[in-house]
């Protein structure tokens, strides 16, 4: 009977039911009841298969019956219902309990993947816990009358290594402690354990515990997804005719969310996970790892059960004194791939390695049980060093305090409490049918609708003060926060002073009438659904008004939407998964940022945090959109210091902020040293924006000089940069128009020199907003790993930069030429703050020419062997000699031109004195051929000039087109028509500019081709046309 199982459930995500239809793709497949395959969304060919005891598919293939229960669409569907899961797992737990063995069920997985759905269920779809309890009492009713069955129920929560009794009725529950007894092992001192006679009582206890959990999570500002819930059912069988007792303990554990550190931890944070929020879950993994190593024969000196509260309480289950089952709930969505893969690896290690250790233990314990059970009548003796068998384990939750209390007395006390609860429940139901009220809406669906605040006739205040008719706790809730008035069949809400009240996503400042199903947010994130008078109610589905509905509504009012984030619909109508993930992160972080701002305000930190989307309007060097991600901009309103935190860093900091804030609420000293303050960071350089300088003219040896805009992450203009990119000689002399090439293939394998010069930056907003600020600019060229930074400039809004770097490609490769034609040079603008280190370029791997110029396109020559280094030096020498020959050739060409001009001047007078009729055609032809050809305007040069004009026009059009993306539709529908008209006009202007540029290029090319054709067909006539000599070029 000793067994460990690991089971996988890709469940319907009750938290986000729309995810399947909003752009995500399924990356999980199950081809049998024991295997699970996951596909990498970035590399579809990469798949990994895991094997478990059972694998359940609950993602699709289901429908609702008339009672709201999910059932299979047809017999061929592989959908596993809650009943199927209970049949395979729950019945095994019950069988162990009846036989006197302990049983433990752990639910592990990412937040929102379906752990609570599996354990508790939702609505009509009951989970394993209620099904186990219901089945247990049904079996008890069918048993013989000469046996007594005693069932006690306890429910606790572990948050931040503190234990909270979820059945305690005290207004401020005490923090319970874990104690150790030599016989009992670890137990929770003072934990309330309630005797139960039927399943209905357990249902009431779970509702009561859920209510306390909801209130506590609001008071502590702690999400239920970061806490562990442990339900313990003590089951004792007393055989009256034989004076024999069997006792077992059923532990049902809903673990905290198992998000990976990268997505919700402390990655890149100087304050690493100092919070104890995830200590229990982390230590559980360490314990499992140590046990797995021991099972494989490795030497393990210590298994750290004592390092966390959770592992202390679960030591019997983890150490082999229990039948243990792990349910690993996973999300099938591609945007959760990393978390899902991590969960699968965890479950695989747990199931495979653990079975090895428990099989060895089973023989010892089972044989001991068989030997001991025959002697056990009324009591038993135990030899020194012998272990207590599973069926004799005492009630750990009760400790030794209730040993003298009879079961009949416990039941009598419980019945009195039950009677009071039944009266309270009946009164609450009657009030729900009579009065309008507020229902709480929680991030955890299990905690939604638990709290009800009734708005009776007249006026009632809501707030922190105990005297209020509606006592509210939570971040941003004032003593007198708002007033609700029920008068003449209408309910209104009026905020007090500057208290935050939001109705249907819109902040209000005056008295507002509430309609049935209005959404109300009080303080930072306390969400409530307003239920109107009975006459207003219908058969609405309240489940659609979940926590995400509130946040999406709020985001829409603030102008945040999928369209704004740049979701591009593919041909299949699906949104971009990466944009979908960013949008969901944004919506998820909105209430967290509001809570962090409120904590900072109450702690007088003087900070303001706001959500931003990194790379919202940014593109890479080829113009493609960059990967977007959510970040948090933090501004110190006193010093104007700015920090940019990643999502992971912010979430980690918020954990630490909550701990500090809780100390503040409890009256403890909340002062911490600056280096330990989660609201503070050392100042650092801040990325302000990027500018794109397109390098296509450089591929034709044409100079580019223009002004480009620095655009911030959200597309606003931060500054303007004056930049030039100039092709030049090795000596730094700018190339002339004669060096322009039409076909870039002419540059293949040749040396290319060019200069990048940052001249001036204009109108820097960063410097306008703060006096003690500076800026630097940086860029990276082609294949160079180093970034080139300008010198820092402080306090000057329009600084003169005047910094130029010369680059050299000794043998221009085709890849480099392609790069110049299709890519842009990205120049980044960085904001400096007083006290932060300036950015510098580390250039240990840079290669330079003999002239000191930076070399690019060095893939073919950048090796470490001595032979290649020697060849490289020879190549440099040959290149220098070649350049000298080029200089001599250039000088000779110039001298040749001067000689031609001199000969032309000498020949012109003689030609004027001679009469044309006296010269024979043959003589004229000979004279013509003997004389050097006069200088001419090259058709290639004219074509190059035409191309230069065309490229300049194209750059202008490209800039206008990119700016079109930054214009966002107005929130006011009345302004939508003018906006569409303006956008159409802008598109029309860009189109006209492109048409004019193409038309001019066609015209220039046609003219040049016509002149060249005429020159080739009539060289004599064309040569002396219009009284000015011209030369017909032989090249095409």
Automatic annotation (TrEMBL):
Entry coiled-coil feature ranges: 875-905
A Gene Ontology molecular function term of the record: microtubule motor activity
Signal peptide: none
Record-annotated Kinesin motor domain positions: 1-353
Subcellular location: Mitochondrion membrane
GO BP terms in the entry: vesicle transport along microtubule
Pfam families, per database record: FHA, KIF1B, Kinesin
SMART domains, per the entry: KISc
Entry keyword set: ATP-binding, Coiled coil, Membrane, Mitochondrion, Motor protein, Nucleotide-binding, Transport
Gene Ontology terms: cellular component: cytoplasm; kinesin complex; microtubule; mitochondrial membrane
Family to which this protein belongs: Belongs to the TRAFAC class myosin-kinesin ATPase superfamily. Kinesin family.
Identification of the protein by name: Kinesin-like protein 6
Species per Swiss-Prot/TrEMBL record: Canis lupus familiaris
Primary gene name: LOC102153289
């Amino acid at each position: 009977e000793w067994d460990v199982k690991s089971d996988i459930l890709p469940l319907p995500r009750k938290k986000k039911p729309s995810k399947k239809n909003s752009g995500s793709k399924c990356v999980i497949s199950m081809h049998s009841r024991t295997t699970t395959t996951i596909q990498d969304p970035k590399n579809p060919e990469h798949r990994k298969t895991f094997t478990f005891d059972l694998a359940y598919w609950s993602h699709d293939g289901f429908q609702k019956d008339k009672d709201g229960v999910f059932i299979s669409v047809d017999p061929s569907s592989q959908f596993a219902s809650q009943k199927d899961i209970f049949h395979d797992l729950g019945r095994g737990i019950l069988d162990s309990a009846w036989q006197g063995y302990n049983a433990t069920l752990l639910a592990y997985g990412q937040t929102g993947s379906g752990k609570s759905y599996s354990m508790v269920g939702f609505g009509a779809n009951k989970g394993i816990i209620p099904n186990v309890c219901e089945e247990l009492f049904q079996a008890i009713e069918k048993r013989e009358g000469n046996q007594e069955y005693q069932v006690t129920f306890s429910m606790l929560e572990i948050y931040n290594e503190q234990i909270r009794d979820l059945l305690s009725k005290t207004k401020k529950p005490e923090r319970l402690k874990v104690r150790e007894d030599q016989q009992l092992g670890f137990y929770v001192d003072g934990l309330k354990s309630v005797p139960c006679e039927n399943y209905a009582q357990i249902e009431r206890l779970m509702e009561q515990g859920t209510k306390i959990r909801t209130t506590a999570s609001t008071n502590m500002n702690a999400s239920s997804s970061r806490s562990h819930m442990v339900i313990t059912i003590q089951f004792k069988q007393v055989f009256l005719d034989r004076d024999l007792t069997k006792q077992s303990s059923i532990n049902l554990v809903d673990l905290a969310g198992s998000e990976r550190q990268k997505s919700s931890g402390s990655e890149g944070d100087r304050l690493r996970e100092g919070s104890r929020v995830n200590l229990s879950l982390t230590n559980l993994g360490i314990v499992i790892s140590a046990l797995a190593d021991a099972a494989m024969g490795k030497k393990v000196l210590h298994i750290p059960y004592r390092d966390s509260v959770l592992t202390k309480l679960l030591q019997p289950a983890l150490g082999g004194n229990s039948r243990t089952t792990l349910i690993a709930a996973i999300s099938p969505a591609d945007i959760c791939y990393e978390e899902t893969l991590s969960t699968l690896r965890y479950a695989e290690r747990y199931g495979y390695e653990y079975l090895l250790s428990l099989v060895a233990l089973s023989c010892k314990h089972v044989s001991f049980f068989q030997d001991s059970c025959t002697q056990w009548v009324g009591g038993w003796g135990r030899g020194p060093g012998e272990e207590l068998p599973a069926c004799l384990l005492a009630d750990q939750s009760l400790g030794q305090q209730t040993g003298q209390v009879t079961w009949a007395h416990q039941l009598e006390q419980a019945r009195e409490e039950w009677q009071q609860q039944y009266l309270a429940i009946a009164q609450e139901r009657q009030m729900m049918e009579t009065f309008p009220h507020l229902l709480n809406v929680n991030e955890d669906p299990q905690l939604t609708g638990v709290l009800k605040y009734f708005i009776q006739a007249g006026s009632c205040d809501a707030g922190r003060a105990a005297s209020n008719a509606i006592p509210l706790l939570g971040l941003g809730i004032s003593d007198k926060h708002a007033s609700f008035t029920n008068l003449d069949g209408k309910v209104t809400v009026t905020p007090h002073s500057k208290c935050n009240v939001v109705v249907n996503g819109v902040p209000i400042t005056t008295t507002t009438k509430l309609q049935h199903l209005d959404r109300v947010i009080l303080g930072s994130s306390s969400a409530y659904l307003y239920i109107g008078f009975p006459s207003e109610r219908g058969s609405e589905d309240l489940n659609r008004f979940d926590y995400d509905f509130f946040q999406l509504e709020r985001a829409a009012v603030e102008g945040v939407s999928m369209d704004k984030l740049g979701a591009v619909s593919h041909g299949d109508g699906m949104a971009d998964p990466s944009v979908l993930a960013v949008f969901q992160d944004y919506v998820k972080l909105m209430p967290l940022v509001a809570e962090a701002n409120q904590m900072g305000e109450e702690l007088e930190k003087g900070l303001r945090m706001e959500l931003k989307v990194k790379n919202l309007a940014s593109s890479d060097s080829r113009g493609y959109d960059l990967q977007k991600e959510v970040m948090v901009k933090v501004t110190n309103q006193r010093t104007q210091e700015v920090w940019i935190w990643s999502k992971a860093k912010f979430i980690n900091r918020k954990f630490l902020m909550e701990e500090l804030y809780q100390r503040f609420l409890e009256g403890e000293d909340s002062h911490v040293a600056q280096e330990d303050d989660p609201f503070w960071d050392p100042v650092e350089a801040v990325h302000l924006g990027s500018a794109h300088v397109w390098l296509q003219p450089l591929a034709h040896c044409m100079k580019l000089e223009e002004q480009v805009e620095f655009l911030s992450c959200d597309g606003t203009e931060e500054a303007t940069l004056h930049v030039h990119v100039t092709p030049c000689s090795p000596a730094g002399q700018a190339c002339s128009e004669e060096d322009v090439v039409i076909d870039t293939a002419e540059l293949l394998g040749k040396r290319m020199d060019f200069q990048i010069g940052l001249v001036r930056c204009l109108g820097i907003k960063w410097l306008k907003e703060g006096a003690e600020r500076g800026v630097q600019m940086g860029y990276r060229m082609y294949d160079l790993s180093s970034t080139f930074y300008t010198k820092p400039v402080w306090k000057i809004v329009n600084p003169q930069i005047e910094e130029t770097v010369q680059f050299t490609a000794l043998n221009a490769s085709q890849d480099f030429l392609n790069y110049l034609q299709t890519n842009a040079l990205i120049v980044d603008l960085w904001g400096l703050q007083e006290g932060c280190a300036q950015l510098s370029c580390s250039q240990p791997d840079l290669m330079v020419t003999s002239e000191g110029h930076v070399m690019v396109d060095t893939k073919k020559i950048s090796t470490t062997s001595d032979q290649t280094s020697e060849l490289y030096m020879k190549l440099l020498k040959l290149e220098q000699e070649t350049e000298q020959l080029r200089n001599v050739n250039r000088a000779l060409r110039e001298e040749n031109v001067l000689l031609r001009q001199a000969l032309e001047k000498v020949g012109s007078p003689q030609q004027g004195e001679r009469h044309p009729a006296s010269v024979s055609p043959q003589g004229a032809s000979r004279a013509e051929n003997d004389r050097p050809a006069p200088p001419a305007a090259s058709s290639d040069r004219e074509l190059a000039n035409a191309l230069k004009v065309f490229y300049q026009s194209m750059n202008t059009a490209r800039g206008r087109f990119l700016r079109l993306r930054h214009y966002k539709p107005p929130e006011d529908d009345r302004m939508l028509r003018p906006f569409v008209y303006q956008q159409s006009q802008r598109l029309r202007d860009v189109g006209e500019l492109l048409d004019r540029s193409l038309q001019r290029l066609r015209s220039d090319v046609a003219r040049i081709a016509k002149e060249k054709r005429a020159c080739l067909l009539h060289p004599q006539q064309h040569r002396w046309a219009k009284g000015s000599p011209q030369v017909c070029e032989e090249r095409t």
